[in-house]
Amino acid sequence: MLLADMGAEVIVEGLSWYFASSSATSSASDAVNALVGERIRDHTVDHWIDHLNRAGVPCGRVADLRTVFSDLQVPAQEMVLEVEHPGHGPVRMTGFPVKFSATPSRVRLPAPELGAHTEEVLSELGLQGELARFREQRII
After folding, report:
1. Are 80 and 92 contacting, i.e. CB atoms less than 8 angstroms apart?
2. Which of 56, 79, 125, 136 could crosslink 74 through cysteines, CB 3.0-4.6 Å?
3. CB 140 within 8 A of CB 122
């Protein structure tokens, strides 16, 4: 339906094999992605969002972090937090998308340093007896 709505009926007709089985679908995804990529290059992102939304296909823009942090709606929705990290100073991060008045969300701890919880996680996985060997072999 999405391909047909994009005006790619020829692609749809030629892809009946694509939907025949899950293995065919999986193996042909690169081909379909290439065909869709060629088609969507003809117009802007805004064009496709408008076109597909009017056709009943839910879609929207995907934002990278730079875009998220510069969007005026984001701070208005309290979606940017600045958290003090002991090793890195103030760190900006995305906030909590769901807000509850009775149980407000909050950052309790800063993000851990790389590997800070490795031994704890390995122990919880039942590898407590292997930790000394892992350290000796410089695995951790």
Report:
1. yes
2. 79
3. yes
